[in-house]
Amino acid sequence: MKARYSSLFDSLDCYLAKSDGTTLKQHTLDVLNYIKHLTDDERAHLAAVYHDLGKQASGFQRQLEDSGFKWHYRHEVLSALIYLMQEEFDPAVFGAILTHHRDIEHPHNREPEGSISAHLRNIGIVLDKAGELPVPVPEDIVRKLVEHTKYLRYGIDEGIYTDHVLLRGYLIAADHAASAGLKQPVQVKKVNLNISPRGFQQQAAETEGNLILEAPTGSGKTEAALLWYDRNRNGNRRLFYVLPYQSSIEAMQERFVQRGVFQGDEVGVVHGRDMLYAFRRYMDEGNEDLASQQAKQDANLNRLVHKPVKITTPYQLLNYLIGIKRFEVGIVQMKDACFVFDEIHAYDSSTLAMITVLIDVIQQLGGKVMVMSATLPEPLVDELKRRLHNVKHIVADVALPDRHYLKRLDQTLEDCIPLIRRDLELGKSVLVVCNRVDQAVSMYQTFSDIPSRRLLHSRFMIRDRSRIENDILHHKPQLLIATQVVEVSLDISYDTCYTEVAPVDDLLQRFGRVNRRGEHGIVDVHVATTYDAGKLEYVYDEEYLKNTLNAISEQAISWHVQRDWVNHVYQNMLQDRRYLRKLDVFSNHVRSMKAYITTTMEDIEQKIAGTIDVVPACYLDEFMQLTDEGRYLQARELLVPVPFEWKQWYGNRISYIGSGSYTIDADYSEEYGLVKPEKGEGNSALIV
After folding, report:
1. What is the mean pLDDT of residues 661-682?
2. pLDDT band, residue 4 (cuts 50/70/90)
3. Which residue has the higher pLDDT, 257 or 688?
4. Residue 674, class by beta-carbon neighbours within 10 Å (0-12 exposed, 13-18 middle, 19+ buried)?
5. How does pLDDT run across 439-460, given as a tens digit for each residue?
6. What is the pLDDT of residue 684?
7. % of the chain residues with pLDDT over 90
8. CB-based contacts of 597: which residues, under 8 Å, 6+ apart?
9. Are 417 and 481 in contact (CB under 8 A)?
């Protein structure tokens, strides 16, 4: 390819590609070199050769040299014209060149003037801009460009397994990487695990292809997954290690790198707040500007195709199937990769339905899947066996010491206050877990006489929650009152706990924050079984709560007991109407996807996120000032996640302020967090 285009490359030396002085020849060669490491498809290589040739236009060159001049046109359009004059037409190559920066059209006519179609409406303007190229462009070529673009919009097949998706993804990925100064993707050199494998770990290491693993917490599932990946990676396969919680992702990266499993440059984290986590980590060194710069560099690099090991949430992968901007880059990363889904029991029925579709997509893209958990309901195991090709199922034969003894309390959590006080007076550290934020705040206020206490829930600003969690880790309070966030966010260990009943897998996660390492033998954990069904309507499925109450009994909680409980509670989980509806809706959506089209932010919020970010009104001035100063990471630390439904239920108190964020007219304090508006101040619907 290089020899074929040597004369073309030589002529590009006198043109600029970037304002930093990078020549068009150098950038084109860099993109071509990078894309060759991503794929052997010569059509992708051809797209790399032509993708930026439109930058030869005199107006574009002037724009690079004169910061005061604005060209107001898209160089990709001219690049596509040059391709049409020089090569036999291939719609996927043409589409990749034409759209490597912009979609053909914006969804729902958003920003219509920024789309490629907007620049093709006036043939005269296209001809005028083409006249700035060093070679003449016939009018019939311009008309072919317009017709071919219409074909890309209306004539290509639906689906994400098309050449259009893959070639566009390869070109955008290579272009972004080369622009960042990267020469070739990193590859995993070695998976370093210095262990003597247990039986089930050795079985995983010998498994080629898809795998389901059930093993108790603390038995070494992660090591088993890494041994499976080493067996299946075939040199170049990427690894997506998928976890449900952001805090778990950050801890896993630290584990992989500090223990030397992978080299630091091989591992990246990708989740909704990855840049903020990195910012806080770098802020330990005290330089805010430097921390912000380093955090942005880290997050941007991790989101490129560059690193071979990505620790992420399923929501990032599902975003690709929703059709976020440049989703094609995500698809080419997923192609032929290995995926480990850890703690898959932790998802609600709607998310689990989308993950089911995701697993189908992964296999169609040539990927391999490992699903693992301490507790997998039998219906889910059966469904996974039906969907995963040639799958092996391993149930670990491991005996670990029991750590907890369940005590049923046939009363409300509030009625347990005397028992909680008794344990505090005995000098015990006590964890209290509520199912609702308002309930947690009320319980916290009840214990105002306890000097060593903390409140933790989801409705704190990111800045305050980070501070609270850090204080809890370094100065553990005797009494911690929390909501479900404690199930995953902190590596803490209490002497006992009191919790309102919840679905059994949530209870087991809560128990995991008690006697965490078994240092006290077997200790009591208490479940209050009486609850207000109306107040939990928007929190948990009533069937799962009733099944849990029928399943759990006073006894030592061994791993086999846990599995029996989970199987009883979730015996009908795949008949859940929310699961079935989401499975149908999401499957149809994925089948209808097309290259070159992006999904709107609102669509993503509704289908994936489940939450929106709000700034309490009392902090809006600070948020806007930080934004105006360009201190965007500091501004985002003032955000509070709330349910997406709040936009409807409290819409008169919520206003959009841009960049996917909102402000809310509601009280906020650093001690109690965001106060939910009272009934009558908007819709009266109950929320958590």
Report:
1. 83
2. low
3. 257
4. buried
5. 999 999 999 999 999 999 999 9
6. 31
7. 66
8. 103, 104, 105, 107, 323
9. no
pLDDT confidence bin for 110, thresholds 50/70/90: very low
Residue carrying the six token digits 């311009």: 142
Using DSSP's 3-state secondary structure scheme, residue 71 falls into coil
Taken in order 322, 485, 279, 190, the sign of the CA dihedral is: negative
Task: Give the residue from 166, 508, 511, 220 showing the smallest Cα distance to 342.
Answer: 220
DSSP 208-248: -S-EEEE--TTS-HHHHHHHHHHHH-TTT--EEEE-S-HHH
Q: Tell me the C-alpha distance between 392 and 205, whole Å.
A: 12
Q: What's the whole-number mean pLDDT along residues 191-216?
A: 95
CA–CA separation, 174 and 35 (whole Å): 5
Burial tier of 370 (Cβ tally within 10 Å: 0-12, 13-18, 19+)? buried
And the tokens for 497? 């706990």
Radius of gyration of the chain (CA): 28
Give the chain's length: 688
Instruction: Tell me the C-alpha distance between 110 and 95, whole Å.
Output: 21
The structure tokens listed for 60 are 């574009």
Residue 552 sits at φ, ψ, to 5 deg, of: -80, 145
Sheet holding 496-500, edge to edge: 404-409, 523-528, 496-500, 430-433, 479-482, 453-456
Return d(Cα 156, Cα 173) in angstroms, integer.
22
Contact 660, 603 (CB under 8 A): no
Are the C-beta atoms of 169 and 328 separated by less than 8 Å? Answer: yes
Please say if the pLDDT value at position 601 is more than 50.
no
End-to-end CA distance of the chain: 60
- What is the Cα–Cα distance from 344 to 374, expressed in whole angstroms? 9
- CB count within 10 Å of CB 533 equals 10
Structure tokens at 390: 């040639």
Residue written as token pair 């505090």: 424
Q: Taking the CA of residue 92 as centre, how many other CA atoms within 13 Å lie in the half-sphere pointing to its CB?
A: 20
Rounded to the nearest angstrom, the gap between the alpha carbon of residue 180 and the centroid of all alpha carbons in its chain is: 22
